[in-house]
Design goal:
By secondary structure, the chain is of the alpha/beta class. The chain is 53% helix and 11% strand. It is built from 17 helices and ten strands.
Length: 371
Amino acid sequence: MKMQIKARVLRSGQHIKRISERLTSSLAKDVLIETSTTKGVITLNRPNSLNALTLSMIEKLSTTLKSWEKEKSLMIIKGYGSRAFCAGGDMKEALKNKAEMAQKFYTLVKHISEYQIPYVSLIDGITMGGGAGLSVHGRFRVATERTVFAMPESTIGHFPDVGASYFLPRLAENLGYYLGLTGNRLNGYEVVKAGIATHFCESLRLPKLEKALLECKKPSACVGHILDAFSATSLKKEVGSSFGAQLEQIKFCFGANTVEGIVERLVGEKSEWAQKTLGRMRTLSPTVLKIIKKELDEGANKCLKECLCMEYRLVINMSLNHDHDFNEGVRAMLVDKDRKPRWIPATLEEVTTNMVDRHFKPLARDMELKL
């Protein structure tokens, strides 16, 4: 009897060890890939870093998307855990490999925008910066009540990229200028209203939605209908939002031709929202605010490819110029975390046209982004 119990314990221990080994192996991967004969699911798997993207993740995504476009009829991309879809690029790695990371990520963004099979991103949780790049340019974007969307680059003395110069100025009511300049956030209901997400699904229903998508026979014909059905049911339970009340103010204030004009309109509005927004903008780099305004103005008249090429010039020129405000923003917000950046120049009036325009200069032909 003792021998039988010992044998069962031993077998149980070996079984647990095998499960543990499988889980360790799975969780060690920063991109989890699941496939069936005709469909694929990608899970960004760095939950402790809010699924922030590294260079190796971007490379894996690029390789997988290329092969699946020929082999699959549907792909889904999501984040591991409940906190984030993707919080953007991993800043430590981005600082080391800035040009290479931008080149490979922008190429991936362009591929996503042209993807030939249904591309569904489940933007559950934090979706910022690079997370927007992975989702907004795809055909279907599903938000949840946990979605927190932002392009927060201005807070570290940088500009919104990964195609933001294309999609932000195309949002109605000057909302894109507001988001790009302030870095402020939208919730899941608001991103649907804004058109950033195409559909909405309560987070508890995401497993059912994913199952329905993976079981559909002809994704090219039925994915949209499945998402519509889930979205219609979920949006009936919409909670309150102040988004609608602010739209008129956003449209007016952020419709000014210059950053100084935006500030002047905010000063004149007197509302609590306007004063909060004004306070926020006064903490940001004056130079970067003017760079972002020019970036979005130019992006409004460019195709996505041209926008990505412009953004790449901005990345490289910032590096070549050893841009003070970006380095200072990283120091204040990410390294020392004193949240007291010292911008140079310190005021909008001191920022000259030349200081802005030099960031947009064409690169040497062999340095330009090739898409």
